[in-house]
Amino acid sequence: MLLGVIRTLYDYNVWANRQVFDTAAGLDLDCYFARLGGSFDSVHDTLVHLVGAQWVWLRRWLGESPPALPRPADFPDLADLRRRWDEVEAGTRAYLAGLDENTVLQVLTYRDTRGVEHSYPLWQTMLHQVNHATQHRSEAAMMLTRLGHSPGELDFLRYLNQRA
Known about the structure:
With 164 residues, the chain is mainly alpha-helical. It has one domain (2-94, 126-159): Up-down Bundle (Four Helix Bundle (Hemerythrin (Met), subunit A)). The protein is 61% helix and 6% strand. It has six helices and two strands. It has helices at 2-24, 29-33, 43-61, 78-97, 122-146, 156-163, and strands at 107-111, 117-121. α1 (2-24) packs antiparallel against α4, α1 (2-24) runs parallel beside α5 and α3 runs antiparallel to α5. The protein is globular, with a radius of gyration of 16 Å.
């Protein structure tokens, strides 16, 4: 049951991220890189964090502890970032496909980017990653809307209705 919930949330995460990425693709470069404020200054910086955070968590689930997240300068444009997101998403899907109900209950120990060790049940870190993505995707959606390019409703129930 828990694994089914996790997989459904990750399917939603892919759908919602795609809505935001597709909308961002309609921006000109000045708008895409415009300094708008927020947790991260621009649509670009926010999307880099969104992708980078999912990558860091995937690496942690695979037994690594990356010392840093990717930087906005690592991706000169949205096309480069989208390619990276596609890679991270494929890796996440492969990881999810290999999980079972017992594995998600096991404790994951990792080091954060400051080198501090943490331990949580795997399922909690997985729910955290989706929730974290929701926060930053919402910030990107707000920026896009301010720029006149709303990604539309990103609600979980909207996703479920479209999936049905």
